[in-house]
Amino acid sequence: MIKEAIILAGGLGTRLRSVVPDLPKCMAPVAGNPFLYYVIAHLQKEGIQNFIFSVGYKSEAIISFVQKEFMRIATHGSNDFQFSIEEEPLGTGGAIKLSCEKVAGNDVLVCNGDTLFKIHLTELGNFHLKHNTECTLCLKPMNDFDRYGVVELNNDDSIKSFKEKQFYETGLINGGVYALSARSFIKENLPHTFSFEKDYLEQFIHSRNMYGLIQDEYFIDIGVPEDYEKAKRDLTGS
Q1: Mind listing the pLDDT tens digit for each residue in 4-30?
Q2: What does R_g of the chain's alpha carbons equal in angstroms?
Q3: CA geometry: angle at 39 spanning 114 and 194, to 5°?
Q4: 215 with 139: CB under 8 angstroms?
C-alpha cells in the first residue's frame, strides 16, 4: 500500500498570475482555503501518511501554510511532512528526483499541488503492484478538449503512445497523478534539470514498464483563470 506522496508545489503559475499575482498556484484561495488544502485533504482520506512537498517559487507561503495545517490536524492522525526545496528551477523531473531522495519506501504517489484528481489510491496501489511498473499514470477520460494531450493504451493497459495537444472529441488525458518506483527512478541516467513528461515518460515509454489506470473521477487543474473560477464554484462547502 502506498503511504507516501510527493506534491509538486514549485510552479511559477504564469498563466494564473493575472488573477492570483502574489502567490504560488497551489496557494490560490478557494472557498476560504488555499487550493493545496483540498489536495492534502483528499490524499489523507485515501490513506497517505507521509507528505513530501516539493517547493521553490515563493516557498515561504507554502511552508507556513503546511506547518500550520499539519499542526492543526496532528491530533487526528499520524501524518508527517517534509520539504524538498529547489534552490534553482529543476523542471518537473528534477524536482521529483530530488524529492525521491526523501522517500522512505519504494513506491510513492506523485501529484501536482495545483490539480485535484480524486483518485482511488488503493486501486492504484494494487494495479501498480500487480503490473510491477516503474510508473503508473492515472488517466482521466475527457470530451471536447484542446488543453491536454492524449494517452493511448495497449490492450494490456501498458502505455502505447502520447499524442500532442490539439482538439480531441474524446480521449484519455494524463491526470498528473503517478505511482512511481522511487528507487528505480533515482537510478535513471537523467540530467539535473529535466521534464518528467518529455524526458522521462515519453523517452522511456517503450523501454520501461509504464502502465495507465483509468479513473473517471473528479478532476480540476487551476492552471488557467477559467478553471480556477470553476474550482471555486465546485469546492464551496467541501
Answers
A1: 999 999 766 565 656 666 788 899 999
A2: 17
A3: 45
A4: yes
